[in-house]
Design goal:
single chain; alpha/beta; 2,3-Dihydroxybiphenyl 1,2-Dioxygenase, domain 1; 7-stranded mixed beta sheet; 14 strands; about 40% strand; globular
């Protein structure tokens, strides 16, 4: 993608008790190349593995010390699951003005020459940690390692096409995510959907089962072979056929 004109879901993160096990299961299931391990996530008390899936990314994080946000999420969710959605945006200033107008708190920022990250407070945007990131050039993605820093290497086709989030109030959550992204949501009172028209991706919001915490429960990916979804790290990975 040489030019970004609207928000795009660029990376989805899972949180797991055992990063190596879940990363190994993903490699075995889908044949993805070796992941990048980012030492920078150590500041959050985490280890990670980032897989390139086309020119989008699937990350696994795991706490390596007590009292981390990821560890608390594991406890609330009742085990491994989807944790974070990172959106690439074309206009950083407009996005930051939008979230300020909405009264949404920012919990972390990164300001680098080729990438900027803005993590939003999960209590203000329910269902996952949402990040709004800007890159230059648009094809690059520093969070995936040196090969993607300031450039984009040759890569396979396909990629993440959407996700499903379990939340207490799907229409309200979808409305909030849509406001953050500068889009609109549609729904029927029980479930709700946000279409990202420029990337062709879809975000779905459904009711969370009783006794579970909110979280990302499914990731759809173009290029996966048809068949039953594979549940890995508490997340269903499905072919993008819907």
């Amino acid at each position: 993608m040489s030019m970004l004109t609207g928000p795009r879901l660029r990376q989805v993160a899972l949180v797991a008790r055992d990063c190596g096990q879940v990363a190994g299961d993903l490699r075995a299931a889908f044949g993805w190349a070796d992941p990048f391990h980012d030492p920078g996530v150590g500041q959050f008390g985490l280890t990670n593995a980032v897989f390139a899936v086309g020119d989008t990314f699937v990350e696994v994080v795991a706490p390596k010390q007590p009292d981390t946000t990821a560890g608390r999420y594991l406890k609330r969710r009742g085990g491994d699951g989807g944790y974070m959605a990172i959106f690439q945006i074309p206009d950083l200033a407009a996005a930051r003005a939008r979230i300020a107008d909405l009264g949404i708190r920012v919990v972390w920022t990164a300001e680098l020459p080729d990438i900027v990250g803005t993590h939003l407070h999960p209590k203000d945007v329910p269902g996952a940690i949402v990040s709004l990131d800007w890159t230059v050039p648009a094809q690059s993605w520093r969070w995936a390692g040196p090969a993607w820093t300031g450039q984009a290497p040759e890569h396979a086709p396909g990629g993440v096409t959407g996700l499903t989030v379990e939340v207490l109030d799907p229409p309200a959550a979808a409305k909030r995510w849509a406001q953050v992204l500068g889009l609109t949501a549609a729904g029927d009172g029980r479930a709700a959907v946000i279409a990202l028209p420029d990337s062709g991706q879809v975000l779905r919001f459904v009711p969370v089962p009783a006794g579970r915490g909110e979280g990302i429960t499914e990731v759809t990916i173009a290029g996966l072979t048809d068949g039953e979804p594979r549940v890995i790290g508490g997340v269903s990975f499905a072919a993008a056929t819907r």
